[in-house]
Amino acid sequence: MKKTSLATLAALLAAGSMAVSTAASAQDAKAGEKKVAMCIGCHNIPGYQASFPEIYKVPKIAGQNAKYIVSALNAYKKGDRKHPSMRAIATTLSDQDMADVAAYYEQLEKSAPAPAAPGEAPAEIAKLLAKANCESCHGKNYSMPIDPSYPKLAGQYADYLYVALKAYQTDHNPRVGRNNAIMMGMARPFTHAEIKALSKYLSSLPGELKSVQLPEFR
Hints:
With 218 residues, this protein is mainly alpha-helical. It has eleven helices and four strands.
């Protein structure tokens, strides 16, 4: 009986050790650094502009939540986010690749947390924010979402936010659009002018997002 108990204990300890090891390797930033060759040509050049479906700056992703980056990559891979280049890249990545890349960007030149709350928004913007209820998911400072699978928005490029929000308004287009029930419901009541105003305000806020220029691009 004692031998059985010891054997059982040893098995449990081994399983626990394996679980810890798996958890530790679930996101490996150092491994991710070796897997971002397809990312750095756009996301590590500050102000770099994409031209599809219109001209806009590719998003800042250094400092973004790793869980959100994984969620976004999976959405491109599944086709819930329609973008030919991003889908082509995402389909080459395994779950481990996504986790590693996300971990790399989350910690890349990580800065101090954004202020707990932004200053008071202009009256017209405040009305739009209340209508969209952005704070309920993305946090009072728009940099501390209630779940890390949601993105930080504060300080993101305004033109990227504008294009992203318009994508949630787009239907029946095989190459453009985003499928997310919550964001579709939020974005669709707004005009493009209102979305542009919201995007400009969110971009103006102090945040934690960056486009980090790597030595090879200096």
